[in-house]
Structure formats: structure tokens, C-alpha cells
Amino acid sequence: MSWEIVIVGLAVLGASAYCGRLAWRAFHGKSTGCGCGAATCHAAKPGGTPRET
Amino acid sequence: MSQTVALVGNPNVGKTAVFNALTGLHQHTGNYAGVTVERKHGTVRQGGASVDLIDLPGAYSLSARSPDEIILADVLLGLREDAAPVMGLLIVVDASNLERNLFFVSQLLDLDKPSIIALNMMDIARRRNIAIRTEALEAALGVPVVPLCARTGEGIAELKTALLGLCSGQAGAQTPLPQRHEAAAKALAAVLETHRHVLGRVVPAIEALRILVDRESYAEKRLIGRLGADFQDTIERYREEARSNGKSLAAEESRARYAWVQSVMADAVERPSTRTKSRSERIDNLLTHRFFGTLFFVGLMLLIFQTIYSWAGPLMDLVDGGIGSLGERVGGLLPGGMLQSLVVDGIFAGVGGVLVFLPQILLLSLFIALLEDCGYMSRAAFLMDRLLGWCGLSGQSFIPMLSSFACAVPGILATRTINNRRDRFTTILVAPLMSCSARLPVYLIMIAAFIPEHSILGGLIGIQAMALFLMYSVGVLVAVPTAWILKKTLFKGPKPPFILEMPSYKVPQAMTVGRKVYYEGKEFLSRAGTLIFAVTILVWALAYFPHSSTIAGQYEAERTQLLQSSVEGEARELALADVNDRENGAYLRYSFLGQFGNFVEPVFHPLGWDWRIATATIASFPAREIIVATLGTLFNLGSDEDEASLTLLETLKAATWPDGRPLFNIAVAFSIMVFFALCAQCSATLITIKRETGQWRWPVLTFVYMTGLAYVCACITYQTLHFAGLGG
User: Fold this and answer.
1) Which phi and psi angles does B456 have, rounded to 5°?
2) Given the DSSP bridges, would you call strands B145-147 and B115-120 parallel, antiparallel or unpaired?
3) Does residue B546 have a cis bond before it (omega within 30 degrees)?
4) Is the predicted ipTM greater than 0.90, yes or no?
5) Which of B21, B269, B371, B653 has a Cα-to-Cα distance from B121 of 20 to 30 A?
6) Which residue of B has its CA nearest to A7?
7) Is residue A49 part of a domain?
């Protein structure tokens, strides 16, 4: 059915675009590309307890 | 325009608490240009007046070696263009540990800037019967002293008032250093004055003193970099002038400063004459003991892993059941075909399979947060110092490694406090070997499916918990020889000294622990809802298409033939199910992913894996948890529709080779776990290594050595267990 193809096509395209964007941002140093929301990426505090924010 | 005051002090004296209490919401965070050291500044306001406060990294002295210490020294000397010139210092000290803190204070006062001493943690000092005469301390240091407790807010208002008048205040007392040191520093500064056009600035005597005293420091290297290697001889000549009877300049400086500290302490501080051992010290007698401490550590870890199995089981079943029934209902609403397959085999079997592990992730992070907050983790670092010393590292490297048990990204960031580049890079390269929380789902599913549920010690510890403990130990056991090899080859150098503060034991704060568990859970769910969700859709598409009509026609003809035959009843149902199974298997085998899997299968054959495990492993190189989702999708796609309702555990147990032999067994399970324990399947970690080292070659080296090590160790594991009769 055509509407099934459209939905599946959009899902696959969306997933590809998302993964591509993550990889692009990671390669250009804008994020680590893990998709975790970056909470731990800012968690290391110089000097003090490492995981304290 | 506001003037800038630097907030400085030793690590763990509550600088951040003071900064937060003074600035409230008026603060900003970023990085210093070119380095990944956090730059935090805020504004202190009272009435119409304001002061800009800049929070600098904690340090024990002005000897700059680590990236943190270099930033600290440069900002204080006004050498960074991205930081405003510092007009005054707010020095935070720990009132319960004043003697040690005053060493750094004596160096900071030598900078000749208006200063205030914030005497933090007064509550702990009072509890320990330490009496501090503030007026006497002010007289000895020559600067205002404000007693406070940042945690409760005591003294913060007084500190704010003192801070706003700071820049018009005076500099503190100077520590009397050996005459020769000061003379040599002034002479070197005078020589450097003649090189002003090359250096682009005047080098003050205090910086010249640090260049002389701190051998091979950043300041010395920077100077040599500008003036050429020949200038080293000039520095050495002045070092010789400063030296007396061949004694080390650093040792002489320490002696002079500690003599000054003792005189200040004698005037201003009164401690109880008879010192009884505190409760923490009594507990430490056991917990840091070479034998009993290690035994306690191993026992505690085993107990935690056992609890993860015992407590998380019912919760896991609940989540699993919920996701399973939701998947069936949603699948039932959709017409059979491509979209139903995407939702049921792709999204529910894939992402749902990962979500099942949320209870275990939360429990593990709860235990880690409890151990961190009660102060036990510093004792674990102390115990590890001996083990790490064997491979040329110190307990200083253990703290980043410990962080890596939750996630390697903050672990690698935490290496910024390691001042020696060789040790920092060695730690960065071995930190990803620690078993992070992303590996937990892989361990749990393999152990739950293929390790028997027997227990020992009267049912206290199960074999499954021991297997999990073993997998967590693999990373540490491999990291030690790896670090040893790196320290003997790429990063040759002596074992660094290690200072570790043992904080007093305390009851963990529910808020702190709760926040850590919340963030861990949030991250896990975020990843499941973003990266894993997206990769699952892509894996499903690659495993579903081209969905050849030739295969459909071939099996449809077989079904029609069967329906027209004389076979009836249960025998017909079984025969139809067999046709369906073979049809699904054929679709999967001739899918894009199946063809790729068949191509790479021979490479993974020595590990006991079929093409589905190999493909799922390759798909999980961006992030480890993806394997669970991919296994869920691949094994569901290749099975009959009735089997789609089985849990992932049951599906894996039922999986077979084409000749009917069970695919999974203890040997295969361990080979998968060992591979995942050692392989660098995390793009975030590799990107972080690039950001922290500034070069691509280090993440490439990490990826190559970890993946090679994972393959070899997984192969040895499988072949050994297979030979021992556990391979089927």
C-alpha cells in the first residue's frame, strides 16, 4: 500500500538524516555525537570532584 | 565597569559552593580558548556595586604542569587574552585543614594583589574543637579573613560586603624566602627585560622565581620555546646562583613556606592537645588495609552485583511485560506487512529490548552514587594506587578510571587534573577499557540467558553475579598491563607522586544521590529515544529490504501446494509454520544486511559467531547498547510471527545454526561479553579523546588497539571454553 511506503520511507529518511547530523556535529567538534543529551559531557569539573556538576 | 576578582584555593575546599552562594544565578560557563578547561564566571551584586568573580581550577601550588594549573597561573599573571586582568583574589581555605591550605595561600599572597581569605567549613572545624582566632590570622596574613560555612550560608553576607571593597584594599604579607632565591629571580627578571621585544611583555620577578624553582614547568618550556634552547643555560646559571650547598630549590622553598605556615598557625590556631582518632580514621584502619581493605572491596562489589540481579529482576519483568503487550496491541492494529514489521520487529523488539535494562542501570548508578557520596571511593582509589603503581601510574589515574565505570566521556575529561602529559595520555588511552553502563545490558542478557542460576555461600552470592563481577574485572585486569606497555614504550617516564585527600565519611545526601541517578536514567532514555531508535530503523530497513518478490512467489507456491495436499490437522499447521519460518529466514538471508553478514561471517567464525551476531556487533560500533536492539530486530525478523511475542532472552535461547545446532552457549556468550568488554564501540569516547588530545592519531590508536585486543581475547575465550566442553 502506498501510504505504508510513504511512512516507512519517511522513517528511514528521518533516521538517516538524524544519524548523519550526529556524525557531522561530532566530526566538527560541536558534540560528542552520542545522542545522550550531553549531561555527562559537562560533568567534569576542573580541580574538584570529577563528576560533580 | 566591574573589576575582576579570582576565586582560588585548593581542590575540595568548597570553592564552587562559595561561588554559587555569592553569584546565585548570575553565572556563565564556557571553555578557555584552545583548551577544554572550564571557564566559569559570575557577578556579585550588592546595592549598586558589583564585582566580576572568576572561578579558577583548584590547585595545591602555583607550579603549573597540568592544563588546569596552566590556566590558573596564566589568568593570575594576566597572560590570557580571553580573561580580564585579575585585580584581587578571593582565597577559599578549609578551616578544618588550615595548615595544608596555607602553603598555597603563601604563594598567592606573593602575587602582591589585594586579597580576602574565606575561611570555609567552619562547622567542621568547630566540631573538631579547632579554635581559630580570626583577628590574629588577619594580623599574620595582612588581609581580611571572613569565617563562613558556604553549605549553610553562614558568613556569606559578610563575605559579599568584604568582596565589594576588596579592590581598593591592600596586598597581604609576603613569605620570607631564602635571600638567594629572591636575588636570582630578580636577576633573571632583569635579563628577561632585555628580551622584552621577543617576549612581547615584561616578566615579573614572581614568574621568574617560579621558572627557577619549578624545573621543567610549563613556564620554563614556554620561555625556552620563545627564546631558543640556548636560553636553558642562562636559566641553569641562575638556578646555580640560587642554590645553596646543592640543595633543591623546590625543597628550600617548601621549607621556608612551611616555617612561615607554622608561625601563623602558632599565633592564630588552637587545636585540642590530645588528639583522638576520629571515627573516619578508625574505619580507615580497616578499609584501607592492604589485605582486609581489598577483601572488603571485592566483597562489596560482589554484593552490589548480586543485588542488581535480585532486586532488578521483578522490575525488569514488569517493563518487559509492558513493552511486550504494548507491542502486540500496536502490531494488532496495523495491517500485516512492511509497516507492521517496522513497528513490531524494528521498534518494539529493538528499542524495547534496550529499555528493559533501565532498572539495572538505575540500581548500578544508585550504588555508585552512594559509594561516591559517603566517601568510600577515595579509599578505593587509595587501594588501587599500589596496583596502578606497578604499571607506572598513580592513584591519580584511578579517579578518571572510576568515572569511566559510569561513562568514559567524563572519565577522559577528568584526566585534566593529571599534570604529567605522559600519564594523562596513558590514562586517556586505557580509561575506555573500564566497563561503562552501556556494556551492562550486553552482560546482563548473555549472563541471564546462558549462565546457570546456581548460588554459593548458602545462597548469598549467585554464579550469575560472579560472572558479572568477572566481566567488570576484565577491563581493569587488561588496563593494567596495557598501561604498563604504554608507559614502557610511547609514554616512558617515572611514576608520578600522588596526593589523595580522604574526605570524612558522611551519610550520603538523598538530593545528591537522587540527582546522579536521575541524570544516568535520563541519559539512558535519551540515547534509547534518539541514537538507538534511529539506528534500529536503519538496521530494520537493511534487514528487511529488498524483500524479493521471487522469494515470496516461491514460498507462496509451496504453501498452495501444501494446502491442496492430503496433509491435514496438526501436521498441516506444523508444515505451514515450517514454510513461514524458512520464508522469513530466506528474506533475512538475502536482505542487504544478510548479504553483508554472510560476507563478513568467516572473520568472526573463530569467535563462534554466526552472521547475525557479527552484523549486530558491527552495527553497534557507534554505541554498544545498539547490539541489544539489533539482536532483537534480526532474530525477530528471521523467526515465525508466533515467535515474535517471545522475549529477547527466549528468542536467543531458541536461535540455531542452519543445521539445527543451538547458536548460543556458554562459550559464545563469554566470547561476546569479552569482545564488548574490550572493544572501542563508542563514537562519543573516540571524539572526546580527539578533543582532549587535539590529534586524530590517539583516537585512531585507541580504536585499533582496543578492537584488535577484543578480537584476540574473544577468540581465545571461545576456543578455550569450547575445548573445555562448554561450546555446545
Assistant:
1) -125, 180
2) parallel
3) yes
4) no
5) B371
6) B339
7) no
A residues 11-50 closer than 8 Å to B (CB): 11-12, 14-16, 18-19, 22-23, 26-27, 29, 31-37, 39-50
DSSP state of B500: -
pLDDT over 90 (residue B351): no
CB contact, 8 Å: B407 with chain A?
A: yes
pLDDT tens readout for residues B569-626: 888 888 888 888 788 888 888 889 888 888 999 999 999 998 889 988 888 887 787 8
CA–CA distance, B59 with B393 (Å, rounded to integer): 20
Using CA coordinates, name the residue in chain B closest to A22: B531
Pair B703, B583 in one domain: yes
Distance from CA of A10 to the nearest CA of B (A): 11
How near does any CA of chain A get to the CA of B512, in Å? 9
pLDDT at B643: 44
Residue B568, classified by CB atoms within 10 Å of its CB into exposed (0-12), middle (13-18) or buried (19+), is exposed
Residue of A nearest to B412 (CA): A44
Please state the length of chain B: 728
pLDDT digits (tens, 9 = 90+) for B151-202: 788 899 899 888 888 777 677 777 777 888 888 888 888 888 888 888 888 8
pLDDT digits (tens, 9 = 90+) for B664-715: 999 999 999 999 999 988 887 888 888 788 888 999 999 999 999 999 999 9
Number of domains in chain A: 1
Exposure string over B226-254, b if 16+ CB within 10 A, otherwise e: ebeeebeeebeebbeebbeeeeebeebbe
Question: Considering its fold, how many domains does chain B have in total?
Answer: 4
The DSSP H or E segment spanning B88 is: strand B86-94
- Under an 8 A CB cutoff, do A44 and B416 touch? yes
- Write out the residue range of the structural domain in which residue B192 sits: 179-243
CB contact under 8 A, A47 and B411: no
Size of interface A-B (CB pairs under 8 A): 141
Helix (H) or strand (E) holding B80: none
Asked whether residue A27 is domain-assigned, the answer is yes
